[in-house]
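Hi Y.,

Following your request, here is the sequence exactly as I used it, all 286 residues.
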Amino acid sequence: MNLLDSTRPFYATGQLPTDSDLQVSPLGYKQKICQEHLHADDTEAPSKQAAPDASLAVHLLKGEASHSKAVAMPAASQCSSWLASLVYPLGRYFVVPAYFRRVEVFGRENLPRTGPVILAPTHRSRWDALMIPYAAGHDITGRHLRFMVSADEVRGLQGWFIRHLGGFPIDTSRPAIASLRHGVDLLQNSESLVIFPEGNIFRETQVQRLKPGLARLALQAEASHPSLDIKVVPIRLYYSKPFAPWRCRVKIFIGQPLYVAAYDLKTPKQSAQLLTADLKQAIEAL
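Below is the corresponding structure, written out as C-alpha cells. Let me know if you'd prefer a different format.
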C-alpha cells in the first residue's frame, strides 16, 4: 500500500499522474489502474457575475446546474438515533455475517473522530450503503453518517429509511440549490458526510473518473469558514466477485485523509481539479 502525503496537493508541483500496468488486487484478481491527466472542464461556461445561489449550483456537481433549472427538492435530513441503533447493529451482527463469507476492514485509525469529514468510497454494489457504516459507523467513531444519495433512491419505504438514517437526495443532472446547501451546512456543523465520488455503481475494480462535485462542495464549505479544517477520507471497497453474490468476501481499505484547506489556490476551478485528481490517486493507492 502506498503512503501518501495528505497535508498538501500532490500535483501542486506539477507531478501529474501517469498510466500504470496491471496490478493484482488484494482479493487476487487483476485490475487496470486508469489514472487520467489533469484536464480542464470543458463543460463549464465562462464565469460571470452571478447571484450567490446560482454560483453555488454552477460551481458544484459538474458545473451543469443553473439557478433557473434547480429542482425544488427538500434537502432536510435527520438521523434518528433509535432507528440507527436498531438498523446498524442488526446489519453488523446478523445481516453481514449471514450473507458474506468474510468482511475485513483496514485503516480505521485514519478515520477522524472530530471535525467535519467527507468519506469518499468507491461504489461497487448496493451493499456499499451497509459496508460504509460497518467500516466507519457510529459504533466505530461515535458519529452518525449523513449520506448524499441519488434522488431516485429516496422513494417509498426505502426513501423513508434513508431520510431517517441521515440520508438526503440530490438530483445529479439538475442539482437543487437546497440540496447542495444542505451538504455545506452539514460540514459547517462538523458532521460526517458520505459522498460516492464516482457517482454511480461500477462493477469494474478500477477506479472510475471522479465527479468534481465532492471537491467543489468541500471547497465551498471550507471557504465559508476557513477554520473548519475539512478532511476527505478515501475509501476503497473490494468484492471478491462482481455483483457481490452470497458468501463472497469483502475488503475495505481506509486511507489517510486529505486536508481541504491545502487546496486554497488562485481559482476555485483549479482547486477543485487538484483535489479531485489527488483523491483519485489516493483511492487508487489503496
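The chain has eight helices and ten strands.

Thanks again,
Q.
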